Amino acid sequence: MTSLIRNLDAKGLTGLAIVMAVALCALLAPWIAPLDPNRQDLLATVAPPAWQEGGSINHLLGTDTLGRDVLSRIIYGSRVSLLAGVVAASGAAVLGAVLGLFAGYFGGWTGTVIMRLVDVVLAIPFILFALVFMTVFGPSLVNLVLAFILARWVQFTRIAYGLVLELREREFIQACIAANVGHLDILARHILPNIAGPLLVVATLELGYVILIESGLSFLGLGTPPEIPSWGGMLQEGRSLINIAWWMTTFPGVAIMITVVGFNFLGDWMRDQLDPRTAGRDAVAGAGGGVR
Known about the structure:
mainly alpha, disordered C terminus, about 0% strand, 12 helices, about 75% helix, elongated
């Protein structure tokens, strides 16, 4: 981990800075938000940002139709996006990795059943699945996380399956099998550590995807309940007033864009660092840097 941090480039540093900033906003929201996100001020409805005529220093980014502070709601909205992203991506990664390990290592009917199930799930568009799931079970953060886990575990299963198929034929795995080492020990101590890197990269990229999906479903009214501040919900509330109250949609949209870009930058950098082919090219380039 220390060596990874030392190798941070501009893209990785930018992504890490954005992710840390969003995480700090989520953790410290009660202390850094200027106002209660649900506090209504009916005398200051649809107030513009502080730098525009009619704006107030008490509402730096303006207010919405109920007089709620936009900045405070953006800060609290980071909690919903980050919580949904971390829990959903982690759950999908764990479920997918376990199934991929068993499918790739044991093969046979176990692997066939798991991979055919993967094909079935992949045949269903995720947006369609999420819309049906949220419509049937109702909009809530828990249901959103469950929908993501049930649909996105296949990404991790396919990757884990391919990596395990290759590792299973390596000499050190065959030596463990010949020495009667338990299958679970082989999976946990010898195979899982060797596939953790690629799975971590995919999980990081999936975080940004979850944030987009959560925002989209909240925009459609199928995400978090209205009383919980969320970036997608703020977009939905301000879409009808975009011509006269642009700040109600612009600032939440910018927050979504920056956060997703941050996770994508961090995931791309991690992929470059953990991919042995990329590392090998960088090493060769570094060794030959003085040759012209």
